[in-house]
Amino acid sequence: MTLSDLLFIVSALLVLGTLIRLLIVAVLRRTGPLKSTARFLGIYLTVYAALLMGFGLGRPRILLDQGQPKCFDEWCVAAIKTEPAAGAVCASSNTWIATFEIASQAKRRRQSAPDANAELEDAQGRRFAPCGSPISGTGKSANTLNDFLEPGEHRLVAIPFALAQGSQPVGAVVHHGQFPGVVIIGDDQSFLHPQTLFRFSAPAGR
Question: Is the pTM of this model over 0.70?
Answer without folding.
Answer: yes
